[in-house]
Amino acid sequence: MLGVAVVAAIVLWPSRRTTETPHPGTTPRAKHAAEGPIPLPSPAPEMGRSAVAPPTLLDLVRLYLADRRVGVSPGGRDADLVCTLPPGRSLFRLNSELSAAMKNWGGQVASGEDVALPARQGGCDIVVTRGAERRRIRLVEGKAPAGSDDPPRVAIVIVGIGSQPRDLVERFLRLPATVTPAILPASTRSRWALGRCAELGRPPLLDLSGSAAASPIEGTQGIVGVAYFMAPQVDENLRTLGPMLDRLASRGLYCVVSRGADGSIVPAEAARRGVRCLTADQVIDDELNANPATMAKKLHEACDLAVSSGSAIVVAQARPSTLRFLESAGDSLARWGCRAVPLGDLLR
């Protein structure tokens, strides 16, 4: 009886997924894509009638795609499953992710058996196999609702501004007004950068990623909030985090934080103290020498996330390579079906 109870607890206990956006300098994990394939559950031990049947190949595909916010419905004569992507989601990318997942489950997407759908439908049929199981999956590109004039929103935050040469700081501050600058309070050009933000009409954040000290907030005027990209431990940092959040609450400022492995204590503590809090989704230049192709890919991933959830927050670091990429990115967000907005707009 004890064995039966343990198996039942394992089967019925709800799974918990966590997503994580680490401090800039580490590899972020996009919520909808980079969590990796869903592992194949192990079959339950043979226990007579109470044994749990392992999931079928179709079950695994259905769960995997639903987990990525892809609409899933039963197929008909031509396909076993019909999956409708949200508008703007990359069909090629989803196909690649599903191929990786199939390898993890001991199967594959059958090479050379994908069939393009007519242009009026948009999409393709693919065949997935595992052992003797063989299923046809129809991937259909989603269409934006008729009359929709409010595309998904993406906000970009540049952290670490202030320690660079003055001409470089000036170029960061002259990026499109939808890009939100975060100024390092103790940097060599922090006062000058804050003054230039005021002259240019660009409300900045204070970048407190290195410390939760409340003192820089007290003497800094013109800021609208703070960037705090750390995942503090309750016992270690709550003593400094609490006063920082209290200062933000007293001045009506907000904060944007990373998504720690445990969800981070900051959003919960901020809500308890009456501070509005946003959580970043993607870091586009976590590698020291991130190239334009890598940054473009990660920015596109953020757009995919915004399409499925309504908005996304992108973090970039004040590096020359990142500056060159953002200056040349132009209307990339619009081409990917999204609208660039200042970070504060996501509070509304």
Protein traits:
2 domains; nine-stranded parallel sheet; single chain; alpha/beta; 348 residues; elongated; 11 helices; six-stranded mixed sheet; disordered N terminus; TIM Barrel
Can you walk me through this structure?
- There is one protein chain.
- The protein is of the alpha/beta class and 348 residues long.
- The protein has two domains: 17-39 and 53-140, no CATH class; 153-347, Glycoside hydrolase/deacetylase (TIM Barrel, Alpha-Beta Barrel), CATH 3.20.20.
- It contains eleven helices and 15 strands.
- The strands form two sheets. Strands 7, 8, 9, 10, 11, 12, 13, 14 and 15 form a nine-stranded parallel beta sheet that branches. Strands 1, 2, 3, 4, 5 and 6 form a six-stranded mixed beta sheet that branches.
- A hairpin with a 2-residue loop joins strand 5 and strand 6 (133-140).
- The longest helix has 18 residues, at 234-251.
- 34% of the residues are buried.
- Residues 1-50 have low confidence and may be disordered.
First CA to last CA: what distance?
54 Å
Would you tell me the structural class of the helices and strands? alpha/beta
Q: Give the number of domains.
A: 2
CATH class of the largest domain: Alpha Beta
| Overall form | elongated
**Helix-strand pattern, N to C?**
HHEEHEEEEEHEHEHEHEHEEHEHHE
Radius of gyration: 23 Å
Share in helix: 25-40%
Number of helices: 11
How large is the share of residues in beta strands?
15-25%
In CATH terms, what is the architecture of the largest domain? Answer: Alpha-Beta Barrel
Major sheet summary line: 9 strands, parallel
Overall average pLDDT? 76
Low-confidence stretches: 1-50
CATH superfamily of the largest domain: Glycoside hydrolase/deacetylase
Tell how many strands the DSSP assignment holds.
15
The third-level CATH topology of the largest domain is: TIM Barrel
